[in-house]
Amino acid sequence: MRLSVKIGAPFSKKKNIKVFDKQISFTIFVDVITKVFVMIDFTSIDFDSPHVSKTINQLKTKSVSVPTWEKLIVDYDPKKHAILTDTDVLKDKVRSDGQLDKSARIIVGLEELHVKRLSEFTFSIPVKRVYGNLEDNETRKAISRAIEAVYKNARIDSENLKRAVAFYASCEIFTVWYAVKKKNKLYGFDSEYKLKCKTFSPMSGVRLYPLFNEMDDMLAMSFEYTKKVQDKDVTFFETYTSDKHYIWKQGLDAGKWLPVLTQETEDGETANGEEIILMKIPGVYAWRSKPVYDGLSPIRAEIEYSLSRNSNVIAYNSAPLLKVVGASKGKEDKGESYRVVHCDQGGDVAYVSWSQSIEALKYHVETMEKMYWMQAQIPDISFENMKGLGNIGYDARQTLLTDAHLKVGDEAGAWIEFLERECNVIKAFLSIMNSKFSSEIDNVDVEHIITPYVQNDELAEINKRMKANGNKPIESQLESIQKYGESSDAAATLKQIQEEGAVEAMQTRSAFILENQVL
Q: Which helix (H) or strand (E) holds 350?
């Protein structure tokens, strides 16, 4: 049952209703609903209005709370870290002769590395798709092959890595799927179109504006970007709804918005936008309230300042310092092979050696690094740490990466939902591209499996599989040759092996024939 409440409606009396086995006041319940679900009325947006600026301002009403990229990039991009412009803690010094000695400012891009590693842990092993409810239905099997072909030709594995970086760093992504007119047989049938996808995120300079209703159903997806047109920057604003695609561009004169996509109606009039025959938004949006490195930047900043201050100390004390006790006698000529300094009695000449306690700094920086990766739930898999492990087994490697696998498990829920919605968009396209699929495509179940990264031990995996099936072979000779990859024609190689085996067997049998034996 859906409760519909008019905001600001007067109540003559209180009514008690039962919600989750509790009696609460109806007026209080309505007050909660109105506070949580105060959103823009989508039906009030006039897409054909001559006042395009008002329409766009309404579409820019963002339904989710996402931190701006302008704020996030300050921590994510090492070149924008505060230490590079800090002149209060790290002061540049001016010598008496006017020469400037700049303070050391060492930047450490832990946030960027953090995002990169988590993305690799999530999608370095490609997402596995398991198709169910196929039974012996050939149409459903053809649909599963077509879906897999769409993913393959869209290079979805590399796309997943790219959008994982954008999602973990900038907190929101939008992937739109579109058809390009091009005859092909990529999907197992003659098609007039080829499916492609493109991902937008604030990292690429695109501002996203999703619009949801109170039940989290997407009503519209808009995004704004700037691109060069005849050597001039032009701002575009695009909106997808379930039935229309709109594009406006901002004119160079007075910033007026102008429609880019128009269609002629049956009445001969010009309407804004183009129709979407899918009857759904041809894309999928994901968002998060904070980046994966949220709260960890102060630790990174402490490492940067510690290293920079120590670098200044080293630079100051690295120049040789000569200590002279008493007065020196005589004068030596330049270029002499044997240089002797004569001192008064009790005098001395020597270089002062600087002894620094490096252990305290090393301990501090290493502790800060450990704290960062520990709270990030990502192991520090740098070469320095991994080289001492030696040749450890597959199970030991999995144990070492337990924390990272748990972190990927935390993130997998949002990704699975995202991938399932994306698969539904692909299904919608295929049902239109091939009418034979339309009646069966919703019956094909697709399960997406995300496998956290771990170095595979092929021999251990083979032994495990063979042990599970009673020590029987788990692949054919042809599959083995294909996986080896050195044969240009695996089938021909298998045939030759079989022929050679037959000859060898014939020779073996011939050896046991009595008349062929030599006594």
A: strand 348-352
